[in-house]
Amino acid sequence: MQPTINDPGKQRSTRPVITAEKLTKKFGHFIAANELTFEVEKGEIFGFLGANGAGKTTAMRMLCGLLTPSSGKATIAGFDVYTETEKIKRRIGYMSQKFSLYDDLTVAENIRFYGGIYGMESKQIKIKTTELLQELQLQDEARTLVRELPLGWKQKLSFSVSLVHNPDIVFLDEPTGGVDPVTRRQFWDLIYHAADKGVTIFVTTHYMDEAEYCNRVSIMVDGVIAALDSPTRLKQQFAGNTMEDVFYELARNAKRKDD
Amino acid sequence: MKQLITFIRKEFLHVFRDRKTLLMLFGLPIAQIVLFGFALSNEIKDSKVVVADYSKDAVTRQLINKIAASKYFDLEQSLQSADQLQAAFKKGTIKMAIIFPQNFATDLIHTNKATVQVIADASDPNQATTITNYVTQIITDYNAGLANDAGQPMQILPELQMLYNPELRGAPNFVPGVMALVLMLVCTMMTSVAIVKEKELGTMEILLVSPFKTIYIIIAKLAPNLIISVVNLFIILILSSVFLDLPVKGSVLLLVFDSILFIMTSLSIGLLLSINAKTQQAAMMGSLMGMMLPTMLLTGFLFPIENMPLPMQFLSNIVPSRWYFIIIKKVMLKGLGFSSVWKETLILAGMCLSLFAISLRRFKIRLQ
Amino acid sequence: MITLHNIKKTYNKGAVTAVKDISFSVNPGELFGLIGPDGAGKTTLFRILTTLLLADEGSATVNGFDVVKDYSQIRKGVGYMPGKFSLYQDLTIEENLNFFATVFGTTIQENYNLIKDIYQQIEPFKDRRAGKLSGGMKQKLALCCALIHKPAVLFLDEPTTGVDVVSRKEFWEMLKRLKEQGITILVSTPYMDEANLCDRIALIQKGAILSIDTPEGIIRSFPEKLYAIHSSNTYKLLQDVRSFSGTASCFAFGDALHVTFTNGSDKDLIPYLHSKDHPDVSMSTITPGIEDCFIHLLKE
Q: Which chains have at least 3 CB atom pairs separated by less than 8 Å from chain A?
């Protein structure tokens, strides 16, 4: 359990928000995720890296309560991933690059829908909607269909919607794919802001510079966690200048490349 | 509970924002009511009937008047010979012939009984049964009022003869119909889906940006379906001959030739459909809605075309399966030759060529 | 080899402008990169150049042929790899290659030396169906299929998107070797770091070209001095540097911030930051990267 270097001033809660102990998932003989063991603190920005096929998606699905592990233990926000998946789903948010919002609904309708799904009261939803639109400066677009928004705005909106019910943890699956550099950074501003308020961020990404924004990073190779530490320490350990060097060093000899 | 309502509300929004689905959801029931309520019916009206009166007496005249007065028949009186009547049945211009023999009156007076010949075209057994029932009913009614001078009842007995399908089996009607439907559907749907699949996958892009001529792409897409359909055709013919006792009475070669014409027409319709469809799903829906429905309704095997309102009769003229259906019935059931079907064959050939020409012209060599 | 003059393209009857007034040219044998995010107009340009779309305005030529009038000539002589790795999923590697070879009127043997380096990496799997290949292998196969007829020009639309880091590196090695064979290559990518591997690049965003030059040229034209600032608390640093009155621009780049200042204010930053409780802050000038230039050009 490393103390995070980047934010010495942040309050550390005593119990980690995500715990995993020898978490494993087998599909027949194929071991997609092999004895993953780690912990994530409240308010931490945790980067989850790995090549395609390394087991990232499988691991994330187990943590979201979408996939039952084959063996091992894990808790999310204190709830057991085997027996309390419904409670987990109420305390987490999720956003992926491929899909998050309904293209043929308006901005406001999307917010209202997700708020309702997460069990929020209509009054709460209305307040949250106004807040959200203001924060993203989308007040004029409340009635616009999502499909007519530029990609960058969609991403930012997706992220905010995943937070609409004030979850403890948010899982972001490659949230910034294909977006221009400025919008990407604006997106990370939102992430920082959320983390500052105590939301734990669990993010996967292909952009190595984004790995640097994280408090700690884990790199999966061939189904196991090959490295887990802060970016600074990882660069020291693997004698690299950037996270890209670190990643390349670890992924180079991987046997599994995106099956 | 609240979450459920939220979700249901969202589903409604999706439906209302999708105009094409909306059209189908509301348009279809309305269209069906209109069609089935007003345009399509199994009721037989204005069937073409020829009456040959060789007796020419008071009774026959009365009876003929009664039959003529009925809305079910479009009566024509003429003294046609047996050969002429046969030819008329073969051509399909008449559905029924009523023949009063020369000695009708004398038989009635002397024996209190007389027969009248009723010959019906039973290639559509439902139609035949219905119209012969109508006639029989009229005659029976007339019988009730007949009595000789002595007050004894007199009877006119209709002698029924069902042509082409004496056992009144359903197969002779529905097998040609099914042939037309199946070939049309398979060719249209398979072709349009195969081409659109290429578009969806993105491989069409690469094929276009290559020296491979577009015409070859089209031929390659059509060829398998042509061959498979011809095989299908033979399977249907063999099955109906062996299991349904419905052999091809006429020339198999002629049937195959016309079938290939029909298959190619269907293929080019499939080609046309593929041009505007962006997804395989749209291509399939287009084939089903755009082709299956008109084919089923306007071919003439479920609902007789003569009974439809005029606008729909006009419409049925542009449905290729309507002409193919006529050809199959004439060649397969009535055993007729090219001289009887040259008109329909010409129409089919014309449709085939023009559809091909149109779809080739419009086939996009670019992405937009 | 490739020229574009004032190319404009809109969709939805003018409602959406994909590209506006694009002009540039690619020299024979050049490895030219089109760098920009999604929606910038890269795919539209590719489709216009490969004659799959007609531009609303402007003209373009490929290998001397006009994209509108001589499209069939162009289609015979270019290799094209569209964005979605378009191969037949249910055919094997070998079947796919054979098919495309035939479509292009050649055989695998005829130009085998051209694709040898690449094909040898996937040859052990030649009986595997394309649908079951990894992203990296699909990419190699698609490249082989695009090269099989020895085209003079190669159009690659985002060939490295969605592919793992290692395969990406390998792919660019392959491109360099192809360049040595004299093939002109126009490639698009959203990854700024790949820009450095091209001879010349065009930065494109929202349908307009921001800049065209060699990578070094673009870097040289960055107007101000660029600084990298480190501290242990990056997020707090970000907020503080932004609130500093002398900051002209400030963007996060990994574990550092890239900052430009208004005249002379750079000297005042460190004392300011010390006062904001950043005891271990460090600052140094750095050479801008392509991404810095892109961001800078976006602002204008």
A: B, C
**Tokens representing B187?**
């060719």
Q: How far apart are CA C200 and CA C104, in angstroms?
A: 30
Q: What domain range is A57 assigned to?
A: 16-100+168-251
Give the mean model confidence (pLDDT) for residues C115-120: 87
Q: Residue A93 belongs to a domain with what CATH number?
A: 3.40.50.300
**Banded pLDDT at A140 (limits 50, 70, 90):** confident
CA A175/CA A163 separation, integer angstroms: 14
Domain count, chain A: 1
Q: How confident is the model at residue A153 (pLDDT cuts 50, 70, 90)?
A: confident
Chain B contact for C46 (CB, 8 A cutoff): no
Within 8 A of A109 by CB-CB distance, chain B residues are 10, 13
CATH classification (class only), C226-299: alpha beta
- Residue of B197, B198, B199, B203 to mutate, testing the C interface (most C Cβ within 10 Å of its Cβ): B203
The band of A3, judged by pLDDT with boundaries at 50, 70 and 90, is very low
Interchain pair B10, A102: CB under 8 A = yes
In tens, the pLDDT along C3-49 reads 999 999 998 888 888 999 999 999 999 999 999 988 889 999 999 99
Q: Do B27 and B50 fall within a single domain?
A: no
For this complex, say whether ipTM is above 0.95.
no
All residue ranges of chain B with pLDDT < 50 are none
Helix (H, G, I), strand (E, B) or coil at A248: helix
Q: Which of B4, B10, B16, B20 to mutate to test the interface with A (most CBs of A within 10 A)?
A: B10
CA-nearest residue of chain A to B4? A117
Say what the pLDDT of residue A259 is: 38
Residue A124 lies in a domain: no
Q: Among all residues of chain B, which has the CA nearest to that of C73? A: B211
| Residue where a domain stops, chosen among B131, B163, B195 | B163
Contacts of B37 (CB under 8 A, 6+ apart): none
The dihedrals phi and psi of C183, each to the nearest 5 degrees, come to -85, 130
Packing angle, helices A181-196 and C234-243, rounded to 10:
110
User: Which chain B residues are closer than 8 Å to A102 by Cβ?
Assistant: 10, 14
Does any CB of chain C come closer than 8 Å to the CB of residue B207?
yes
Phi, psi of B191 (to 5 degrees): -65, -50
CB contact under 8 A, C51 and B366: yes
Report the alpha-carbon distance of residue B226 to residue C229 in Å, rounded. Answer: 71
Residues B115 and B246 in one domain: no
Domain C2-219 has CATH 3.90.550.10: no
Same domain, B316 and B239: yes
Model confidence, pTM:
0.81
Contacts of C among chains (3+ CB pairs under 8 A): A, B
Residue A106 lies in a domain: no
- What's the CA gap between C218 and C229, in Å, rounded? 23
pLDDT at site B148: 66
> Which structural domain, as residue segments, surrounds residue B128?
43-163
Q: Which residues in chain A touch residue C124, judged by CB atoms under 8 angstroms apart?
A: none
- Note the pLDDT of residue A1: 38
Number of domains chain B is built from: 2
Question: Does B21 share its domain with B88?
Answer: no
